[in-house]
């Protein structure tokens, strides 16, 4: 499978990285229906850890079975499938080689008291990722949490180990915790900062949430206003995040959030596309829908990223 | 000993796992009077650590002797015997090879202040398990405790090491601690979540408590009600836990709790069987009874799991 | 030196242990005037660490010199001499091979604030014990302290390393800390629990204090009363601790406490003997007495354990 | 490239250091337009981490691109370019060998609550520096912070590893935290102390801020006054810092702070030069200016250090 | 250089220690003008770390240069020179082999808040000491601090590593912290206890402060009074510390404290000599004096230890 010029140009930005990492990035960028376009759609299924099984899977009970998600990602022609250790292991053999997988190596849960702090447990390793034939590891950081410095130190260690083994690293950069207001969690200045931190830490693919036009930090607000940075549309805000990811030298994808109407999902994707983002990580909006409906939605999203919808 | 088709089907769910782990799971599933049925009864004796020697063994003083439990598990035809380092060592030579053993590698005790938190000490290692010829390690997690993230990190490390050495991992998933109400410790939404977390962490065998029809988390309650998940009977609740264990792709056994009437013990077993669970871990209800009585009870439980009682 | 049948029977209880550990237990059990009887008297000198030099040695200033204790243990025909790193090193060469030594690998001191917690520092290693030709390591745990889980984890690690090198492990199990009342420190239910924990952790020799007939834990009190466990005499209480040490499968010795009248010391020893205990660890009651007096006392204690006094 | 006598004299002060470290110091001292003079100008770009991307780069949007800074350092003839992992990686291949690079291995950010404390995360390693062909690692310490002892221990470990691999170590010594008043952060007694601590820890190049004539510590104030130490001018204060850096045996450079008028920047440089300092680390004052303007400013600074302006 | 009988007798007390350690002790005991007498004077220069450069060196500005101290120790004929990593490195090559050096491997500073606790940072390693050709490592413990247990664990680890490499260990035992009153820091019962703890931890050379006749601990006070221990003179108190150092089996030196009158310094030395101590560690009283004056003072101290003054 020969990489397209678009993909080769993206890979060229990863200077000094091991050929193994570039090969895995190439594999994901050439996979499925968006293969070769420089765009990606990733299916992430770690909501069972975050919210529990009933909230995640009861709306579409077939999704209790880990095989369901592998099959959905394959049939929809997605770029990759991301999940924690247990679910990946449950289908590693059956689906070996059919879709790139991302091992989510840390996870939070809904059974934590406030004093336990905003943090996640490291629940898998680079060795696990290698053993299971994954293309990348995925790791969540919480910029703004009192645990953030520790989380940064964990991921740089794991990233180094992963890259040395030829695995790529995806960082979920989710502002949250003691230094972040509720509105700040989706403020554009914070989102751009979160993307930048992921890039600084060496992420190969950055995952952030779509943002609002709120500005949380007074010092940043001043600059946004003084320099006239456009944050009036979702596409403009996506563009600000792309610029903060080394001026577009790093792949950045955006997450969809909780289940919502299909039109809203499509609008998000058009904004990501128009702002120069590289795609979507979309979970609950697909696997909580009936399979046929989910496949239709994913097909339309692919069309959007191809500029056909 | 040729594995039955039932057992081979169970083993096939452990995709990508080492042959060593599968061999140990097979050994336990083919052991004793339930051998080959896909059902298990495990004798766990760590109550001396949890509650002290008098509360555990004074009702049946023969049980002060570690040899007593090995012999009970063998004579009753059970699937495995689980205990901490000291007691396993005290009979490791005498009973070598006669019953699969599970080394309980962490333990709590009743001499802890509230500020010490809900946690356990790691009191044995994978090396100990190998040296003592064990089939598996057993580890307790407390989802909901402020120590939970640390406990998750400990068991994923030990599980990885154990699996690499060909040992299986049993996770005791007991919701407890700062984020869990008293009723919540046995609420069905929490029990299913606890089983799911164990599966996500890579448990080969999951151990949870039987649950009530209480729903602790408001967000989960909404979903249980909206989706009409049946939690009205113990068997239905067992089925919810089984579904949350990767739709039955992982072995799940249920614990019996403190000593109670024999009929109640039998009713529990029937519910586990009817809900699709894989069996019982039953300690105090057997070793705190006189030996003859305990053997009778275990015989009847075996009949129940065989569908004969 | 051929081991007696009594000693061989004791060693047979250490199933699955390395020959090295058994050899060291044999060495201590065959040493001195109690050699071969299955009884032991150990001289422990870590009070300088715990209480400072003046309180420990000023009553008998010869005892400031580490050589004094080696010589006392040898001349009295004791089973072993236990001390921290510094004092053992100060006589390791002069007395090499003349008496088994136990390296006390952790220690507390009297210069700690309340907020520093009930804990000890690990002040020596298994490597030190090997280098100094010791027979065993000694380690104190504080069941009931907020540091207890950490202490348990430390000793199981050190015990594993020691056993692999052919060294035995003695656990000083001293209930103390946030979860223990003052009376509870010597309550019989707590003492038996403490002995049991040491056994569970893999101690080869267990050291506990003699206890009173107080029962601290309400749940335990209920069982002691319901089952009619005899705790009316010191001998009965010793027997309860022996039973809690795997029904006598582990060596258990009792400590003497602060200096007191000779008759009281002898009464303690008779109770230990009559309750089935394996002997005494006796420090201040010997080295704070003038040497001649100490030798007389130790001679009489040996006679008591031999059933002659 | 033959080292000048001036440079050889400087290197001679690094007694007992590995030839690899000396070679990297030599490389930086012989690089660019100040090569051979014993003076240095370093371009540091870690403000994106510290203050976020908008505050750092929006005033001169070309600076969002990591290549911009490499090119600026090269075109201006600077001694070295310092940045965190991500940005160095983004240009490591394109600019390989064209300018010495310093990998900033720890970083702070503006998204931390007060309770998170004054600390930084270690976000890169010596291995990363080697892989990326760097000349040195850079590390920030916060003397006066409750995290200071930990930071000291981190850098001495990393410095040892770096030196053994032939990499130099630059320490950013920034007084900050619980023991430092706001005025104290730039007080001359604190600045000199901070420089001295960096020297004691083994820094090869020391980076401190320019200071005021405030004296924070009463004990130090007494000595400054009693001994009549001149702190009336910036040059005199630079000289005090130089003297505190082993009487000039260690290279010391001064940072410029936030963006300000060009004349002020030039005055600072003259004071550094006249006080015997080795140069400037200057970031925002250059990259937040338009490129042509920045090159002019850097050219003038070079002239100042050469004594021509 | 043949060791004197006095020195050989001292070395014989270090039973079971490596020949490497004994060789380094011998080297220091045979060095300089006190060589062979069993007495030592050590020059320690870590005050720049503890109090900052101005308070330490401004009274005698030549002392800002690390070479100054090497030269002073050599010219005065002292036994050894002790300093942190940075200053030792600054002269390691120039003065190689001319005076035994002690690498001070941990250090405190005056920029710490109360909540940071009484602790020190480990700022150098055994590897550093070997690389720099040192004879020993030096380590400060704070008995009575909440950090004391951690400090004890650090030094026993470093001592073990050092001894295995043939380096001696000097322990600065300075009571300080939460459990110690201001008067208690120099109380004789605390000083003797501090010396004893250092000996127990395996120190080859013990450094304590001279003490007052205050008794801090009530339990100790009782014993001092009951046993009639003489603490009325400085010499008597030195003797109590010597006795607490394994009855004189360990070298013990005393520190001089802040700068004071020369007569007072001489009186201290006579008390150390008369009480059986092994010498002085004297820093500020020498390097804060003008060089000629310092050499005179050191000459007189040497005479005192030789019994000539």
UniProtKB/TrEMBL annotation, chains A, B, C, D, E:
The active site is at 174 (proton donor), 207 (schiff-base intermediate with dihydroxyacetone-p). GO terms for biological process: glycolytic process. InterPro entries: Aldolase_TIM, DeoC/FbaB/LacD_aldolase, DeoC/FbaB_aldolase, FbaB-like. One of its GO terms (molecular function) is fructose-bisphosphate aldolase activity. Keywords: Lyase, Schiff base. Its EC number is 4.1.2.13. SUPFAM superfamilies: Aldolase. It comes from the Bacteria. Belongs to the DeoC/FbaB aldolase family. FbaB subfamily. This is fructose-bisphosphate aldolase. It comes from Pontivivens ytuae.
């Amino acid at each position: 499978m020969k990489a397209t010029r678009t993909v080769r140009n993206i890979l060229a930005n990863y200077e000094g990285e091991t050929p193994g990492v570039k090969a895995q990035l190439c594999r994901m960028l050439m996979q499925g229906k968006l293969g070769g376009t420089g765009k990606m759609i990733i299916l992430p299924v770690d909501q069972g850890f975050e919210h529990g099984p009933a909230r995640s899977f009861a709306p579409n009970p077939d999704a209790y079975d880990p095989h369901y998600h592998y099959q959905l990602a394959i049939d929809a022609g997605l770029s990759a499938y991301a999940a924690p250790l247990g679910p990946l292991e449950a289908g590693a053999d059956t689906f070996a080689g059919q879709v790139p997988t991302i091992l989510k190596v840390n996870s939070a849960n809904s059974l934590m008291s406030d004093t336990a702090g905003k943090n996640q447990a490291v629940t898998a390793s680079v060795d696990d990722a290698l053993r299971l034939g994954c293309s990348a590891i995925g790791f969540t950081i919480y910029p703004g949490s009192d645990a953030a410095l520790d989380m940064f130190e964990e991921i740089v260690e794991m990233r180094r180990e992963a890259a040395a083994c030829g695995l790529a690293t995806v960082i979920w950069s989710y502002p949250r915790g003691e230094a972040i207001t509720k509105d700040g969690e989706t403020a554009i200045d914070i989102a751009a900062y979160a993307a930048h931190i992921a890039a600084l830490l060496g992420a190969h693919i950055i995952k952030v949430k779509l943002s609002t036009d709120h500005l949380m930090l007074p010092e940043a607000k001043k600059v946004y206003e003084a320099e006239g940075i456009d944050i009036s549309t979702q596409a403009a805000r996506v563009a600000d995040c792309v610029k903060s990811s080394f001026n577009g030298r790093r792949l950045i994808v955006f997450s969809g959030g909780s289940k919502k109407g299909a039109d809203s999902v499509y609008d998000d994707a058009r904004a990501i596309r128009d702002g120069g983002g590289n795609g979507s990580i979309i979970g609950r909006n697909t696997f909580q829908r009936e399979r046929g409906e989910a496949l239709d939605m994913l097909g339309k999203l692919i069309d959007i990223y191809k500029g056909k919808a």
